[in-house]
Specification:
It contains one helix and 30 strands. The strands form 13 sheets. Strands 3-4-7 form a three-stranded antiparallel beta sheet, with no helix packed on it. A three-stranded antiparallel beta sheet has the order 10-11-14, with no helix packed on it. The relative contact order is 0.06.
């Protein structure tokens, strides 16, 4: 007999050829297929095919898993949600039904969001430590600036302070007190304001605008003012006890002088006394005395 060929599905392909043995049959009678010869082959083929089919199904299931071999490492690009917020995606993501999903967060852009990115901060890296120079707003007002400022829109702003300068403002600074360090202890020399008036000044003065002034004082000089001083009394120390000598004014009149006399302007003056001489006057004396 011809061999029986059975095509069984084994690992998706292949045929198994099974030979049918001649049936001995009953004595004296014909030929046929032996169940034992065919059944073992069929059983083996059938069982083998079924087992192989189960393996194929498992392989098909594994091959069609939608997330098998999928790695989620390419998140979407960041984008502006509005003018101030940027949505940023993080990797890795997770796969669901064959699709990658990525977590995201919203960032607030201090300087605004544009072109799917936060606008750069114009003050980033700016250090405000160079204030403008001080300036005189007017003759007595100084404007100065804080040494450390703040950055706004890329520009530094410094707090300004105005100060009233007591002695004036010049060249961007308050003028120093012109009287600082000045001691007023050298008054002008005394002088004669007139022939009889002496002008002197206080020993301690006051400073104003860098100059010393001294209070004046006038004194009337009884004996006149000479070379910046009152003249001394010309009669001081003068003793008028030496009158002039007696003298005959004529042949009958004798003049004598009272002593002491009186000093005036440094000179002594004596009061005279005249006496009539009955016998005549000669050599400063009355004759006959």
């Amino acid at each position: 007999m011809r061999p029986l060929t059975f095509c069984l599905l084994v690992a998706l392909s292949g045929c198994v050829e099974v030979a049918a043995e001649p049936d001995a049959g009953p004595l004296g009678g014909g030929t046929g297929t032996h169940d034992a010869g065919t059944n073992p082959g069929l059983d083996a083929g059938g069982d083998g095919g079924a087992d192989a089919g189960s393996d194929v199904d498992a392989g098909v299931d594994a091959g069609t898993e939608p997330c098998a071999g999928v790695t989620c490492v390419s998140p979407p690009a960041s984008h502006c949600v509005d003018s101030q917020r940027l949505e940023v995606f993080t990797a890795p993501g997770v796969c669901a039904q064959g699709q990658c999903q990525y977590a995201s967060q919203l960032q607030t852009c201090a300087s605004g969001c544009a072109n799917d990115a936060c606008v750069n901060n114009p003050c980033q890296g700016v250090t405000c430590a160079m204030p403008p120079p001080n300036v005189c707003d007017d003759a007595t007002t100084l404007r100065s600036f804080a040494p450390a400022g703040t950055c706004t829109a890329g520009s530094c702003q410094y707090q300004a302070t105005t100060t009233t300068c007591q002695f004036g403002c010049a060249a961007g600074q308050c003028v120093n007190d012109p009287c600082a360090g000045i001691t007023c202890a050298t008054p002008p020399a005394s002088f004669c304001a007139s022939a009889t008036t002496l002008r002197t000044h206080a020993a301690a003065g006051t400073c104003a605008a860098g100059a010393c002034t001294y209070a004046p004082s006038d004194t009337t000089c009884a004996f006149g003012c000479v070379n910046g001083a009152c003249a001394n009394d010309p009669c001081q120390g003068v003793s008028c006890t030496t009158p002039p000598a007696r003298a005959c004014l004529d042949t009958t009149t004798l003049r004598t002088w009272n002593s002491p006399g009186a000093c005036a302007s440094g000179s002594c003056a004596y009061t005279p006394t005249d006496t009539t001489c009955p016998f005549g006057c000669a050599s400063g004396a009355c004759l006959g005395d």
